[in-house]
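User: I've been trying to design a sequence by hand for this structure and keep getting stuck. Would you show me what you'd pick, starting by listing the structure so we're on the same page?

Assistant: Good idea, let's start from the same input. This is the structure you sent:
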């Protein structure tokens, strides 16, 4: 029987067109079981998850293509619910498809993959004096500065869910920055968007959405 990996995306699992690339990266060794943080919630309920002023948040979109901000505490609560549901389906390997900060369950068996944990070791291992980061929204820059302070980050914002031209402008703004590598710090950034960043910035680009599925598959 093919091994299964549960993937918790921050949007809706019905929005399959945005996750075909992941399915292809896990195949043929792993079968992806996709669930969404917003599954089962009406658009009005989804909007109620928005952050209060100054509160940390993640960025996603729903199946209707609406851009949404979800307060970090709501995201953590919903992720924990989906972890439990996937465990009940006998799916023990689970990837949280978000580079934000999530808590590891007290009784974790080591088969829950939290990108923040995986990425930090990889990024430190690159041995770069400074790293560039692109986060979706400008309000997230301050939190990211704290999150990556040991990596001496230079952080700019452009959402993978909005204007491609804004992403191009943000990437071009890195041309004269003292970094060799840019990290697209959101799982909404695809390989194609990473290529745009590379072309416009003239820098190497690290896309977690590409790297992590390959890393996880290689473990098995």
């Amino acid at each position: 029987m093919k091994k299964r990996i549960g993937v918790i995306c921050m949007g809706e699992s019905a929005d399959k067109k945005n996750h075909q690339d992941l399915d292809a990266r896990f195949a043929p060794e792993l079968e992806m079981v996709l669930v969404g943080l917003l599954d089962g919630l009406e658009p009005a309920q989804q909007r109620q998850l928005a952050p209060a002023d100054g509160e940390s948040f993640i960025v996603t979109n729903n199946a209707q293509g609406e851009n949404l901000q979800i307060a970090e505490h709501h995201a953590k609560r919903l992720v924990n619910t989906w972890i439990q549901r996937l465990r009940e389906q006998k799916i023990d390997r689970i990837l949280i498809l978000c580079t934000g900060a999530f808590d590891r369950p007290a009784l974790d068996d080591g088969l829950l993959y939290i990108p923040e944990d995986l990425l930090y070791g990889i990024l430190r291992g690159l041995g770069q004096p400074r790293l560039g980061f692109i986060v979706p929204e400008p309000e997230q820059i301050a939190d990211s500065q704290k999150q990556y302070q040991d990596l001496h980050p230079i952080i700019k914002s452009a959402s993978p869910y909005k204007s491609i031209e804004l992403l191009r402008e943000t990437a071009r703004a890195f041309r004269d920055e003292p970094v060799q590598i840019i990290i697209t710090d959101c799982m909404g950034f695809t390989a194609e968007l990473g290529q745009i960043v590379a072309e416009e910035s003239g820098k190497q680009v690290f896309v977690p959405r590409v790297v992590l599925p390959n890393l996880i598959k290689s473990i098995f």
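That's my pick for every position. To get oriented when you compare it with your attempt: The radius of gyration is 17 Å. The CA atoms of residues 8 and 96 lie 5 Å apart.
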